[in-house]
Structure formats: structure tokens, C-alpha cells
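pasting for the record
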Amino acid sequence: MKKKYLILGGDLRNIKLAEMLTNENNKVLSYGLEKSEEIQENRLIDKTPNLQSAIEKVDIIVAPTPFSSNGETINSPYAKEEIKIEQLFRSNKQKILIAGGIKESIKEQLEEKFLKVIDVMKREELAILNTIATAEGTIKVAIENTDKILQGSKVLILGFGRVAKIVASKFSLLSTYVTCAARKTTDLAWIEAYGYNSININEMLFELNDFDIIINTVPEIIIKEKELKHMKPDVLLIDLASKPGGIESKKAIQMGLKYIWALAIPRKSCTYIICRIYKRGHI
């Protein structure tokens, strides 16, 4: 049985999701996407002017990922007006609400009102797909910001968590020489087991001038002025870590090094991540 969906605010991902759901013959309403030409031109999507009326007509409400930036309004860059979160704090016990990155205190309030509240950012599948998007996006950043071909380049990846593992794998498939840096002896052993060169983060200072591309995945400052001084003048620094990042960016830029803090790679490179989960019927 086809479902009735309300696509509530959000960015390009929600716009593409709305199109995908209509293509599969679902009933789709939209609210908070008035500035999207794609939505406005799609005759199969019901553009509703009243949020509460729209909620009453559907089974599932799909809100943005991330849900809110300030804890008061729903992220809706394509909306003409702000959408207050409190507008959802009415009894909707027969409805399912799906969003991503919902603050726990807000999620608890929503769970009192809705039949079910699903935070997609806590799903393992999305986290894995996000790492793939990050890795592929990092390759794109590297290609666009260096005059050299990647094949034969020496790449250092700082950290060996989920993201670093996939980044290392993707870069190694491009015939680069991959070295991964970690602190834990178990991580260093796994790096060797995967077939990469290993280096201890605490002992890498005099090795840094050997690399063409350095990619950080560690969310703490580990590359400071001392480390930056030991790098090649034409090194490409890509920081994938969330704030505060892992590289002293201001110092790197002052020294004339090419530095890119690529925080938005998953959003830019994998518009269809959430769509794929819906299509597989896992939500």
C-alpha cells in the first residue's frame, strides 16, 4: 500500500526525496519548499499552504537533516517563512515523524506527540553511506586542488576510525601511496593488516615533509605550527573533522599552505543517501 508523505522543509535532499516518492506513485505534499523551482514545477506534488491541514492528510512527515540549527525553527532554506518547531507540538498520535540530528530534548517532546519519531542520523546504514560520500568527496577535493595526478602521490591520513578506513581504501584504489597515522597500537596493527604504511601520530614530525596530501579525520588539533613547518610548501591539507578540526587553519593559511576544511562533503556529495534508505524500505 502506498503511503502519504509530507515533505517538511529541508534542503536539496528533501527535494530529491519528494521527487523520488512521487515517481513511485506515493501521494506527496510539501510545506516549506516554496522557493524550490523543482517542487513548484512538479504537478504531482501538492504544495500546501497550511501545515496542520497537511499533517492531518498524511501518514509520514519527513523533516530536514539536520532538523534544526537553533533549537527553535526547522531548517528550511527553501521556505518563505520560518517554521517553528512548536508547530509540531500538537497531538499527532497516528503520524510518523522522520528527521535527522534531532536534539534529544526536542526528540523527547516530539515522541509525546507522534506515534513514532525516527532520527535517521542514528541509523548505522546512514553513517556508513555518509563515510562513502565523504571519501568520494575527498577525492573530488584532492583532484580539484592539486596540479598533480593522484596516481603515485603520497597520502597521509590522520586517524583510523570509520571515515579514515574508507578514505584510505578509496585513495589506495587510485594507486596512491597511503600512510595512516594513529596512536593506539591496535590501530597501527590494523593499518599494517590492511596493507597501508603506518606511523605513530606522536612520532610523525620528521616524516611530514614526505607527503603530497595530508587528510585529517581526528576532531582535535594535532597539526600545529611546529608540524606545519615540516611540510612541503605545495602540500594539500584537507580537514574532514568536525569543530575544532585537527589542523590550525589560520596558521596554515598564514604560512601559504593550501588548506581546505571540507565539513560539508556528505551533504554536497551524497544528496541521495536518505533517498536510498527509503527506497530499500528500511524506514
